[in-house]
Amino acid sequence: MRVHRWLVVAALVVFAGCLGTTDPGAEAGTGNETGAVEGLSTETLTIAEDCGTCFEPTVAVHEDTAYVASGSRDEILVTDLATGETDTVPEPPLPETANPDATTGDETVRVTDEGRLYFTALLCDLACGSEGIQVAASDDGGQTWTINTAVNPVNYPTEPTSGVDRQWLGLGPGERVHLVYSQYAPRTGVWAALSEDGGQSWQQFANAHPRPSAGSPGAPVVDGDTVILPGRSTTHVDVSTDAGQSWEVLDVPGPDVDRWMVGEQRHGNVHLAWTTDGGEVRYTRSTDGLQQWAEPASWTPEDANATAPPTLEVREDSLKIAWYDDHGDSLHVHVARAPLGEALEGPARVSTLEPAFEPVETSQGRACAPPTDFAHADGTTRGRAVVVYSSCENMHLGVVGPG
Q1: What fold, for 24-402?
Q2: pTM of this prediction?
Q3: Which of 124, 313, 347, 372 has the most crowded CB, counting CB atoms within 10 A?
Protein backbone atom coordinates (compact mmCIF):
# COMPACT_ATOMS: atom_id res chain seq x y z
CA MET A 1 0.00 0.00 0.00
CA ARG A 2 1.36 3.44 -0.96
CA VAL A 3 0.82 6.40 1.35
CA HIS A 4 2.11 9.96 1.34
CA ARG A 5 5.76 10.11 2.36
CA TRP A 6 5.08 12.48 5.25
CA LEU A 7 3.27 9.77 7.15
CA VAL A 8 5.23 8.20 9.96
CA VAL A 9 5.98 4.59 9.09
CA ALA A 10 6.89 1.80 11.45
CA ALA A 11 6.94 -1.96 11.26
CA LEU A 12 7.29 -3.64 14.62
CA VAL A 13 6.60 -7.13 15.92
CA VAL A 14 8.57 -9.95 17.51
CA PHE A 15 8.64 -13.64 16.69
CA ALA A 16 7.11 -15.65 19.51
CA GLY A 17 9.81 -18.30 19.39
CA CYS A 18 12.56 -15.83 20.17
CA LEU A 19 13.56 -17.55 23.39
CA GLY A 20 14.80 -20.67 21.64
CA THR A 21 15.91 -23.29 24.14
CA THR A 22 16.27 -20.70 26.91
CA ASP A 23 12.73 -19.97 28.03
CA PRO A 24 12.01 -17.84 31.10
CA GLY A 25 8.38 -18.88 30.81
CA ALA A 26 9.43 -22.41 31.68
CA GLU A 27 10.60 -21.41 35.14
CA ALA A 28 8.48 -22.08 38.17
CA GLY A 29 5.82 -19.59 39.15
CA THR A 30 3.42 -17.31 37.33
CA GLY A 31 2.92 -13.62 36.84
CA ASN A 32 4.75 -10.82 35.08
CA GLU A 33 8.46 -10.02 35.14
CA THR A 34 9.70 -6.63 33.97
CA GLY A 35 13.23 -5.55 33.11
CA ALA A 36 16.13 -7.78 32.17
CA VAL A 37 15.01 -11.30 31.35
CA GLU A 38 17.39 -14.13 32.09
CA GLY A 39 18.58 -15.81 28.90
CA LEU A 40 17.37 -12.97 26.64
CA SER A 41 19.36 -10.26 24.90
CA THR A 42 18.47 -7.46 22.49
CA GLU A 43 20.52 -5.69 19.86
CA THR A 44 19.59 -2.87 17.49
CA LEU A 45 21.38 -2.58 14.14
CA THR A 46 21.00 0.50 11.96
CA ILE A 47 21.06 -0.92 8.44
CA ALA A 48 20.15 2.16 6.36
CA GLU A 49 20.45 5.91 6.94
CA ASP A 50 18.78 8.89 5.28
CA CYS A 51 16.41 6.64 3.36
CA GLY A 52 13.33 8.82 3.64
CA THR A 53 10.49 6.90 5.21
CA CYS A 54 12.10 3.52 4.44
CA PHE A 55 8.57 2.61 3.45
CA GLU A 56 6.94 -0.56 4.85
CA PRO A 57 10.06 -2.74 5.15
CA THR A 58 9.84 -6.52 5.22
CA VAL A 59 12.45 -8.99 6.45
CA ALA A 60 13.28 -12.62 5.68
CA VAL A 61 15.91 -14.65 7.55
CA HIS A 62 17.93 -17.72 6.64
CA GLU A 63 20.49 -18.90 9.19
CA ASP A 64 22.71 -15.85 9.93
CA THR A 65 21.53 -13.74 7.00
CA ALA A 66 18.67 -11.22 7.09
CA TYR A 67 17.25 -9.83 3.84
CA VAL A 68 15.29 -6.55 3.95
CA ALA A 69 13.25 -4.94 1.16
CA SER A 70 11.64 -1.52 1.39
CA GLY A 71 9.49 0.61 -0.88
CA SER A 72 11.90 3.54 -0.68
CA ARG A 73 14.93 1.67 -2.06
CA ASP A 74 15.99 -0.05 -5.29
CA GLU A 75 18.14 -2.60 -3.52
CA ILE A 76 17.83 -5.41 -1.00
CA LEU A 77 19.75 -4.98 2.24
CA VAL A 78 21.69 -8.09 3.31
CA THR A 79 22.79 -8.17 6.96
CA ASP A 80 25.16 -10.71 8.48
CA LEU A 81 23.66 -11.24 11.93
CA ALA A 82 26.91 -12.72 13.24
CA THR A 83 28.95 -9.59 12.48
CA GLY A 84 26.27 -6.89 12.18
CA GLU A 85 27.61 -5.84 8.78
CA THR A 86 25.16 -4.87 6.04
CA ASP A 87 25.71 -5.09 2.29
CA THR A 88 23.31 -4.64 -0.62
CA VAL A 89 22.26 -6.49 -3.75
CA PRO A 90 20.15 -4.90 -6.51
CA GLU A 91 16.48 -5.70 -6.64
CA PRO A 92 15.73 -7.96 -9.62
CA PRO A 93 15.19 -6.11 -12.91
CA LEU A 94 11.72 -5.77 -14.34
CA PRO A 95 10.49 -9.00 -15.95
CA GLU A 96 11.00 -9.15 -19.72
CA THR A 97 7.24 -9.07 -20.31
CA ALA A 98 6.66 -6.04 -18.06
CA ASN A 99 6.10 -2.47 -19.19
CA PRO A 100 9.63 -0.99 -19.31
CA ASP A 101 8.29 2.25 -17.83
CA ALA A 102 6.74 0.52 -14.82
CA THR A 103 7.83 1.30 -11.29
CA THR A 104 7.53 -1.02 -8.29
CA GLY A 105 5.71 -0.86 -4.96
CA ASP A 106 5.07 -2.99 -1.87
CA GLU A 107 8.42 -4.76 -2.22
CA THR A 108 8.42 -7.93 -0.11
CA VAL A 109 10.98 -10.68 0.58
CA ARG A 110 10.54 -14.27 1.75
CA VAL A 111 13.02 -17.14 2.02
CA THR A 112 12.59 -20.92 2.04
CA ASP A 113 14.08 -23.28 4.62
CA GLU A 114 16.67 -24.22 1.99
CA GLY A 115 17.72 -20.60 1.48
CA ARG A 116 16.00 -19.69 -1.80
CA LEU A 117 15.26 -15.96 -1.70
CA TYR A 118 11.95 -14.71 -3.12
CA PHE A 119 11.17 -11.11 -4.05
CA THR A 120 7.76 -9.78 -5.05
CA ALA A 121 6.51 -6.31 -5.91
CA LEU A 122 3.54 -4.58 -7.49
CA LEU A 123 4.27 -3.28 -11.00
CA CYS A 124 2.91 0.24 -11.21
CA ASP A 125 1.97 2.68 -13.95
CA LEU A 126 -1.12 4.80 -13.40
CA ALA A 127 -1.77 2.73 -10.28
CA CYS A 128 0.22 0.12 -8.40
CA GLY A 129 -0.61 -3.35 -9.66
CA SER A 130 -1.93 -1.97 -12.94
CA GLU A 131 1.00 -3.64 -14.73
CA GLY A 132 0.88 -6.89 -12.78
CA ILE A 133 2.77 -8.47 -9.88
CA GLN A 134 6.46 -9.35 -10.05
CA VAL A 135 7.70 -12.63 -8.55
CA ALA A 136 11.42 -13.43 -8.65
CA ALA A 137 13.59 -16.11 -7.05
CA SER A 138 17.33 -16.37 -6.38
CA ASP A 139 19.42 -19.33 -5.23
CA ASP A 140 22.52 -17.26 -4.48
CA GLY A 141 21.28 -14.56 -2.12
CA GLY A 142 20.15 -12.13 -4.80
CA GLN A 143 23.29 -12.17 -6.94
CA THR A 144 21.33 -13.67 -9.83
CA TRP A 145 17.62 -14.30 -10.37
CA THR A 146 16.72 -17.62 -11.98
CA ILE A 147 12.99 -16.83 -11.95
CA ASN A 148 11.58 -13.40 -12.78
CA THR A 149 7.97 -13.29 -13.92
CA ALA A 150 5.11 -10.81 -14.18
CA VAL A 151 1.83 -12.30 -12.93
CA ASN A 152 -1.35 -10.70 -14.30
CA PRO A 153 -4.07 -9.68 -11.81
CA VAL A 154 -7.36 -11.53 -12.03
CA ASN A 155 -9.03 -9.14 -14.48
CA TYR A 156 -5.98 -8.08 -16.50
CA PRO A 157 -5.96 -6.95 -19.31
CA THR A 158 -9.66 -7.02 -20.22
CA GLU A 159 -10.68 -4.51 -17.54
CA PRO A 160 -8.94 -1.44 -16.11
CA THR A 161 -7.00 -2.46 -13.03
CA SER A 162 -6.85 -0.28 -9.94
CA GLY A 163 -6.68 -0.77 -6.21
CA VAL A 164 -4.32 -3.76 -6.23
CA ASP A 165 -2.64 -3.84 -2.83
CA ARG A 166 -0.06 -5.68 -0.70
CA GLN A 167 0.81 -9.00 -2.25
CA TRP A 168 2.27 -11.81 -0.12
CA LEU A 169 3.91 -15.16 -0.81
CA GLY A 170 3.43 -18.48 0.97
CA LEU A 171 6.20 -21.01 0.34
CA GLY A 172 6.12 -24.80 0.12
CA PRO A 173 5.92 -27.63 0.24
CA GLY A 174 8.54 -28.34 -2.41
CA GLU A 175 8.34 -26.03 -5.41
CA ARG A 176 4.92 -24.66 -4.52
CA VAL A 177 4.49 -20.90 -4.16
CA HIS A 178 1.20 -19.26 -3.16
CA LEU A 179 0.58 -15.65 -4.24
CA VAL A 180 -2.20 -13.62 -2.60
CA TYR A 181 -3.19 -9.98 -2.94
CA SER A 182 -6.08 -7.61 -2.20
CA GLN A 183 -7.98 -5.73 -4.88
CA TYR A 184 -10.41 -2.86 -4.41
CA ALA A 185 -11.61 -2.37 -7.99
CA PRO A 186 -13.06 -3.52 -10.27
CA ARG A 187 -13.16 -7.07 -8.85
CA THR A 188 -12.93 -6.58 -5.11
CA GLY A 189 -11.67 -9.25 -2.78
CA VAL A 190 -8.62 -11.25 -1.76
CA TRP A 191 -7.26 -13.30 -4.67
CA ALA A 192 -4.93 -16.30 -4.55
CA ALA A 193 -2.95 -18.24 -7.17
CA LEU A 194 -0.65 -21.28 -7.03
CA SER A 195 2.62 -22.03 -8.79
CA GLU A 196 3.87 -25.62 -8.85
CA ASP A 197 7.28 -24.76 -10.35
CA GLY A 198 8.77 -22.25 -7.96
CA GLY A 199 7.01 -19.22 -9.43
CA GLN A 200 7.80 -19.68 -13.11
CA SER A 201 4.19 -20.29 -14.16
CA TRP A 202 0.90 -19.68 -12.37
CA GLN A 203 -2.54 -21.22 -12.24
CA GLN A 204 -5.68 -19.11 -12.45
CA PHE A 205 -6.49 -16.81 -9.53
CA ALA A 206 -9.27 -17.93 -7.19
CA ASN A 207 -11.33 -15.65 -4.97
CA ALA A 208 -10.35 -16.36 -1.36
CA HIS A 209 -12.60 -13.72 0.18
CA PRO A 210 -15.18 -11.28 -1.24
CA ARG A 211 -13.77 -8.26 0.59
CA PRO A 212 -10.25 -6.84 0.25
CA SER A 213 -8.06 -6.51 3.32
CA ALA A 214 -5.46 -3.74 3.42
CA GLY A 215 -2.07 -4.97 4.56
CA SER A 216 -3.50 -8.40 5.15
CA PRO A 217 -4.12 -11.30 4.71
CA GLY A 218 -0.38 -11.47 5.16
CA ALA A 219 1.79 -14.43 4.29
CA PRO A 220 -0.36 -17.55 3.85
CA VAL A 221 -0.07 -20.30 6.46
CA VAL A 222 0.74 -23.42 4.43
CA ASP A 223 0.60 -27.04 5.62
CA GLY A 224 0.58 -29.43 2.68
CA ASP A 225 -2.59 -28.85 0.68
CA THR A 226 -4.13 -26.72 3.44
CA VAL A 227 -3.70 -22.95 3.08
CA ILE A 228 -5.01 -20.50 5.69
CA LEU A 229 -5.34 -16.73 5.29
CA PRO A 230 -6.00 -15.04 8.64
CA GLY A 231 -8.19 -11.96 8.36
CA ARG A 232 -7.84 -8.38 9.49
CA SER A 233 -10.53 -6.20 11.09
CA THR A 234 -12.88 -9.15 10.96
CA THR A 235 -13.61 -12.47 12.64
CA HIS A 236 -12.87 -15.00 9.93
CA VAL A 237 -10.20 -17.10 8.30
CA ASP A 238 -10.10 -18.08 4.64
CA VAL A 239 -9.28 -21.77 4.25
CA SER A 240 -8.39 -23.92 1.26
CA THR A 241 -7.86 -27.67 1.51
CA ASP A 242 -6.93 -28.16 -2.16
CA ALA A 243 -3.79 -26.01 -2.41
CA GLY A 244 -5.68 -22.81 -3.10
CA GLN A 245 -8.00 -23.93 -5.88
CA SER A 246 -11.15 -23.28 -3.87
CA TRP A 247 -11.79 -21.37 -0.65
CA GLU A 248 -14.17 -21.33 2.28
CA VAL A 249 -14.71 -18.42 4.68
CA LEU A 250 -14.95 -19.65 8.27
CA ASP A 251 -16.08 -17.54 11.21
CA VAL A 252 -14.04 -17.39 14.40
CA PRO A 253 -15.78 -16.75 17.75
CA GLY A 254 -15.16 -13.68 19.83
CA PRO A 255 -15.64 -10.10 18.66
CA ASP A 256 -13.06 -7.31 18.59
CA VAL A 257 -10.70 -8.72 15.98
CA ASP A 258 -10.16 -5.10 15.05
CA ARG A 259 -6.53 -5.12 14.07
CA TRP A 260 -4.54 -8.17 13.04
CA MET A 261 -4.86 -11.93 13.24
CA VAL A 262 -2.07 -14.48 12.83
CA GLY A 263 -2.31 -18.25 12.57
CA GLU A 264 -0.34 -21.47 12.67
CA GLN A 265 -1.34 -25.03 11.87
CA ARG A 266 0.31 -27.93 13.64
CA HIS A 267 -0.68 -31.61 13.74
CA GLY A 268 -4.10 -30.85 12.26
CA ASN A 269 -4.93 -28.19 14.85
CA VAL A 270 -5.23 -24.51 13.93
CA HIS A 271 -4.09 -21.83 16.39
CA LEU A 272 -5.04 -18.14 16.07
CA ALA A 273 -3.95 -15.02 17.96
CA TRP A 274 -4.96 -11.41 17.41
CA THR A 275 -4.99 -7.91 18.85
CA THR A 276 -8.22 -6.14 19.71
CA ASP A 277 -9.14 -2.49 19.37
CA GLY A 278 -8.70 -2.21 23.14
CA GLY A 279 -5.08 -3.38 22.99
CA GLU A 280 -5.66 -6.96 24.16
CA VAL A 281 -4.06 -10.08 22.72
CA ARG A 282 -6.40 -13.07 22.46
CA TYR A 283 -5.96 -16.70 21.48
CA THR A 284 -8.19 -19.54 20.29
CA ARG A 285 -7.80 -22.87 18.51
CA SER A 286 -9.72 -25.48 16.58
CA THR A 287 -8.99 -29.18 16.96
CA ASP A 288 -11.73 -30.59 14.69
CA GLY A 289 -10.92 -29.33 11.23
CA LEU A 290 -12.02 -25.71 11.79
CA GLN A 291 -15.60 -26.65 12.58
CA GLN A 292 -15.58 -25.41 16.17
CA TRP A 293 -13.45 -22.89 18.04
CA ALA A 294 -12.64 -22.65 21.72
CA GLU A 295 -13.74 -19.59 23.65
CA PRO A 296 -10.92 -17.04 23.20
CA ALA A 297 -8.56 -16.43 26.10
CA SER A 298 -6.92 -13.10 26.91
CA TRP A 299 -3.13 -13.22 27.09
CA THR A 300 -2.52 -9.64 28.18
CA PRO A 301 -2.62 -7.84 31.56
CA GLU A 302 -5.23 -5.18 32.22
CA ASP A 303 -2.97 -2.25 31.29
CA ALA A 304 -1.93 -3.74 27.96
CA ASN A 305 -1.77 -1.57 24.86
CA ALA A 306 -0.79 -3.96 22.08
CA THR A 307 -0.09 -1.93 18.95
CA ALA A 308 1.21 -4.53 16.51
CA PRO A 309 0.24 -8.02 15.42
CA PRO A 310 1.10 -10.74 17.90
CA THR A 311 3.03 -13.74 16.67
CA LEU A 312 2.79 -17.26 17.98
CA GLU A 313 4.85 -20.41 18.06
CA VAL A 314 3.37 -23.84 18.73
CA ARG A 315 5.60 -26.57 20.14
CA GLU A 316 4.72 -30.14 21.09
CA ASP A 317 3.74 -29.17 24.63
CA SER A 318 3.70 -25.37 24.80
CA LEU A 319 2.50 -22.20 23.15
CA LYS A 320 4.31 -18.85 23.03
CA ILE A 321 2.80 -15.53 22.01
CA ALA A 322 4.72 -12.26 21.71
CA TRP A 323 3.58 -8.68 21.19
CA TYR A 324 4.59 -5.03 21.50
CA ASP A 325 3.04 -2.52 23.89
CA ASP A 326 3.16 1.22 23.22
CA HIS A 327 3.88 3.08 26.46
CA GLY A 328 4.03 6.54 24.94
CA ASP A 329 7.74 7.08 25.35
CA SER A 330 8.94 3.55 24.67
CA LEU A 331 7.98 0.21 23.20
CA HIS A 332 8.04 -2.90 25.36
CA VAL A 333 8.19 -6.42 23.99
CA HIS A 334 6.35 -9.17 25.87
CA VAL A 335 6.88 -12.90 25.56
CA ALA A 336 4.24 -15.14 27.15
CA ARG A 337 4.20 -18.91 27.48
CA ALA A 338 1.71 -21.53 28.64
CA PRO A 339 1.52 -25.32 28.51
CA LEU A 340 -0.49 -26.17 25.42
CA GLY A 341 -3.24 -27.82 27.44
CA GLU A 342 -3.64 -24.69 29.59
CA ALA A 343 -3.26 -22.08 26.84
CA LEU A 344 -6.97 -21.27 26.83
CA GLU A 345 -6.61 -20.08 30.43
CA GLY A 346 -4.06 -17.47 29.41
CA PRO A 347 -0.28 -17.35 29.83
CA ALA A 348 1.53 -19.01 32.69
CA ARG A 349 4.09 -16.21 32.62
CA VAL A 350 4.77 -12.97 30.78
CA SER A 351 8.36 -11.78 30.42
CA THR A 352 8.92 -8.14 29.47
CA LEU A 353 11.88 -6.36 27.93
CA GLU A 354 11.62 -2.69 28.94
CA PRO A 355 12.11 -0.73 26.84
CA ALA A 356 12.63 -2.73 23.69
CA PHE A 357 12.97 0.26 21.36
CA GLU A 358 12.63 3.96 22.08
CA PRO A 359 10.72 6.15 19.59
CA VAL A 360 12.58 8.86 17.74
CA GLU A 361 11.38 12.47 17.58
CA THR A 362 11.39 13.80 14.01
CA SER A 363 9.96 16.79 12.16
CA GLN A 364 7.03 14.56 11.23
CA GLY A 365 6.36 13.63 14.84
CA ARG A 366 7.12 10.55 16.90
CA ALA A 367 8.38 7.61 14.89
CA CYS A 368 8.66 3.88 15.62
CA ALA A 369 5.15 3.60 17.09
CA PRO A 370 2.38 2.99 16.44
CA PRO A 371 2.82 0.78 13.37
CA THR A 372 0.91 1.26 10.15
CA ASP A 373 -1.39 -1.25 8.50
CA PHE A 374 0.92 -4.25 8.89
CA ALA A 375 4.09 -5.29 10.66
CA HIS A 376 6.75 -7.80 9.78
CA ALA A 377 9.32 -9.97 11.51
CA ASP A 378 11.03 -13.28 10.96
CA GLY A 379 12.53 -15.93 13.23
CA THR A 380 15.76 -17.80 12.74
CA THR A 381 16.59 -21.44 13.20
CA ARG A 382 18.77 -20.48 16.16
CA GLY A 383 15.87 -19.19 18.20
CA ARG A 384 16.21 -15.47 17.55
CA ALA A 385 13.74 -12.87 16.38
CA VAL A 386 14.65 -10.35 13.71
CA VAL A 387 12.42 -7.28 13.62
CA VAL A 388 12.57 -4.62 10.91
CA TYR A 389 11.27 -1.11 11.55
CA SER A 390 11.93 2.47 10.44
CA SER A 391 12.37 5.72 12.34
CA CYS A 392 11.32 8.01 9.48
CA GLU A 393 14.87 8.59 8.27
CA ASN A 394 16.75 5.42 9.19
CA MET A 395 15.96 1.71 9.04
CA HIS A 396 16.82 -0.70 11.83
CA LEU A 397 16.92 -4.39 12.66
CA GLY A 398 16.06 -5.39 16.19
CA VAL A 399 17.48 -8.79 17.15
CA VAL A 400 16.01 -10.55 20.19
CA GLY A 401 17.21 -13.94 21.30
CA PRO A 402 19.25 -16.08 23.67
CA GLY A 403 21.85 -13.98 25.45
Answers
A1: Neuraminidase (2.120.10)
A2: 0.77
A3: 347
